[in-house]
Amino acid sequence: MRCLYALITGAVALQPRYTPSRSLKTRLQVTGSEDDLRDEIARRNAAKADAPRVPTTQPEPTDPLGFASLLWERTLQYGSKLADSLSDEAPAKPTEDIVVLGSGWGAAALVGALGSNGERVTVVSPRNYFLFTPMLAGAAVGTVEYRSITQPVRSLNKHAAYVEATATAVDTERKVVVCEAVVCEGSQCSIDEFELPYDRVVIAVGATTNTFGVPGVREHCLFLKQISDADSLRKALGNAFERASLPTLSADERRRALSFCVVGAGPTGVEFCGELRDFLAADAARYYPDLVGEARVTLLEATDQVLGAFDASLRAEALDELRVRRLATDNQDIAGVDVKLGAQVTEVNGTHVLLGEADPVPYGFCVWATGNGAVSVVSETVSSLGEGAQAEAQATARG
Q1: What residues are paired with 185 via a beta bridge?
Q2: Which has more confidence, 54 or 381?
Q3: Half-sphere exposure (CA, 13 Å, Cβ side) for 268?
Q4: 3-state helix/strand/coil string of 76-113
Q5: Helix ranges, 245-375 (H)
Q6: What angle do CA 195, 10, 111 make, to 5 degrees?
Q7: Residue 386: its pLDDT value, please?
């Protein structure tokens, strides 16, 4: 079986071999609300991604728009090659089943290029929309609304079918994708496990947040990968100011409630700090004039520079812009971001970020934006294929 390690981060395309269609379904012994069960699937996948048996990590894209353009171009090229191969190769059966896992940048571009040769295309993703991730930090503070940065998956290609589920494994021997879906009947929901057969499968599920095994991150930190993350951040920001408004809080408790910590000075962390300061200078100054002056933003970075992959002049400009104080719309003084370089996080508890021997950093909420790690279904599939099967395609399939 020929294997192509695809252009998308952590993507795998497997060559066709016809097997009879089959779709087995099992109802797992898990019940609850729809949101709770979706969280349960996400927690299990995150736990597998955090396991030490996954040794490889991938750096966070340094230029979101530039990376997106490159990814879009390379994926369209791959989609064109895949479409050409469907017409050039003698098919093993009249129609091939192509399963695309994911609904992000790579998957969206690829799905748009498939289906014109009569093949059956199925998209599997727990997210039924494409998300324009560069605007996610703005959505977290209300600069843009969620509907402005999403596009329904079903609008990408009229020839493609969509299944709202999470792919948990790819069985390359039996040529099936194992999926879990949250199924609701009335107010009762359960997790159903089923299999989708394929002739070709493309894994384009992107990446997950890399916690580097730091204790307390999953339990206490917020992330910025999905719309749900941005929504949680928006709620946490409002809750912080409302809590600080309570007359029962002491001065120390109020200052901690208004202390916002961001870990990771890559593009995501730096951009969110900028959006957060804009929120403080505009919206917070208007609605919470007595509190906004106490708000503090702290950016923690383990290395000695921000935006490490960028040009030195851009790094210096970003650092100066973060640290400068600002005046709000009513001339209130807004403190600059407290950028702490060389700050290695050793643990996160319910109230503080611990930095080894340095003083702990208190927080009202903490955003973890330290970069990307492999999604468990990607690393497990690569491991099942073995190094030999991947080595043949490395020179061409990764661009």
Answers
A1: 188
A2: 381
A3: 23
A4: HHHHHHHHHHHHHCCCCCCCCEEEEECCCHHHHHHHHH
A5: 251-257, 267-279, 285-287, 312-323
A6: 65
A7: 76
